[in-house]
Amino acid sequence: MYRLLLVVASILGHSLAATVVAIPHSHAKSIKTTYDAFSEHFLLPQDFDLAEKTPVKKPNEAELDAMQNADLFEGDIVGIPLDEGPHFRMRDAPLDFDHIFDRPYHSSLNIQTYPDKLWNDARVPYMMEEGMTESQRAAIAQAFDEYKEKTCIRFVPRQESDFDYIYIKRNVAFGCSSYVGRAGGNQTVSLEVGKCFTKGIIAHELMHSLGFFHEHSRTDRDKFVTIEEDNIRPGMMRNFEKYTRKIIDPLGMPYDYESVMHYHKLAFSRNGKSTIIPKRKGAEIGQRYKLSDLDAQKIKKLYKCQEKTTTPAPTTSTTTTTERPTTTPRSTSSRWTDKTTSRERSTSTPTTTTEATTTTRTKKPEEKCENLNAHCDMWEQLGHCQHSSKYMSHYCRKACGLCSAQPKKPTVTKGKQCTDKNLFCGYWAKIGECKSESKFMKIFCQKSCGQC
Fold first, then answer.
1. In whole angstroms, what is the distance from residue 310 CA to residue 39 CA?
2. What is the distance, to the nearest Å, from the Cα of residue 135 to the centroid of all Cα atoms in its chain?
3. Are the beta carbons of 35 and 8 closer than 8 angstroms?
4. For 179-198, how does the pLDDT look when each residue is reduced to its tens digit (9 = 90+)?
5. CA-to-CA distance for 176 and 192, rounded, in angstroms?
6. Distances (CA, A) of 48 to 2, 78, 113, 119, 290
7. Is 22 helix (H, G, I), strand (E, B) or coil?
8. What is the pLDDT of residues 383-419, one digit of tens each?
9. DSSP labels for 106-174?
10. Which of 74, 205, 258, 380 is catalytic?
């Protein structure tokens, strides 16, 4: 399939006035159809360009409510069954932790209990439902970029060899939801149209898929928040449980009021009053705007990002030793350190004190140079190293030739040239393809489609 896509690249740079290569109509149609099919299911560099230009939207109250589906575990977690009978589990009828998490599609933070629920090598294959709008694609790209910039997690287009992957799809009335951790096979991240397509909400659901529960589910949460049971809707107390360390491992990190995974104060409220109140004065909870600093640290620790993204670098050190006599009347000792210098001094009478100073300079770890997208070679031949430099300089460093010891940024051409990049744009325009939803036409036939 990808060989057909590369045919598009082979005809770049040709003038429409040049002699048209004799390509059968059916073959030309196949090229366009194949490209459009690919672009429907995966983000393109143009989507990341739009994501960068689009202001990040903070969710409103209605959008936050979309994460409180009464039929899902904790409002937005798929894969954990709820009671089917008329009586809901309350805190006086504890949840059976072993039963809830004994199925292969469940996961949690504790990788000793659930070692197979993390994504291999921090690589998360994805696929999108057809028909996503430009704004929806841009919101997904913003969330992917958030993980790219703060962690080693890579959301990459699914390949045929990827059995496990997330499938991002839309719904019209069922809120936002995700499985927790790698579920196996096709696992859905479901986003309600008009409510869930913001960077922060998508980042929240993706963090579930990486293996994280809500922050208030931590074993130690009662030290940091108060649960106001009288304000919680009937039957919804099950969403405010806390779990043992067998289920949730806090990874040695402090409780995070600012986490994108924390419930907001009115979650599942029956009367408009707070259901969860921070014990720290002035603390705000429930933001759905970005990964917090601690969110990023937890992800990096869980997925061992330091081991995956850096290579060992040599260090250099210099040591200077001086001797001088002292007349200190009694033995003393002292130790102190700073970031670049460590010292140790001891004195006794009557002797000579040796003071040593060691300065260590550590080279900055080198970023691993590779293509993070299976289609980087195609993007390079289509000119994206120049036109989508931010995306390409991260996802396609190898294809863009940025693997030298001192990487240089891709050259950006001044001003966008509005041209046709396919010899058959005139034909496609005449038969009305400019009016279709074809991404091929929008990207490669701007001139013929009057987009200049």
1. 32
2. 18
3. yes
4. 989 988 999 999 999 999 99
5. 6
6. 21, 28, 37, 23, 17
7. coil
8. 778 777 778 887 888 888 888 754 455 444 444 567 8
9. ---S-TTTSGGGSPGGGEEEEEE-TT--HHHHHHHHHHHHHHHHHSS-EEEE--TT--SEEEEEEESSS
10. 205
End-to-end CA distance of the chain: 31
Distance, CA of 159 to CA of 165 (rounded, Å): 9
Angle at alpha carbon of residue 306, lines to 301 and 311, rounded to 5°: 165
Q: Can you tell me whether residue 41 is helix, strand or coil?
A: helix
205 is annotated as an active-site residue: yes
3-class state of residue 306 by DSSP: helix
Distance (Å, whole) CA 139 – CA 144 = 9
The b/e string for 337-352 (b: 16+ C-beta within 10 A; e otherwise) is eeeeeeeeeebeeeee
Asked if residue 40 lies in contact with residue 67, where contact means CB atoms within 8 angstroms, the answer is: no
Domain locations along the chain: 2-42+375-444, 43-309
Number of residues assigned to the chain: 452
- Tokens 């019209």 belong to which residue? 172
214 is in an annotated binding site: yes
375 known member of a binding site: no
CATH homologous superfamily, domain 43-309: Collagenase (Catalytic Domain) (3.40.390.10)
27 is in an annotated binding site: no
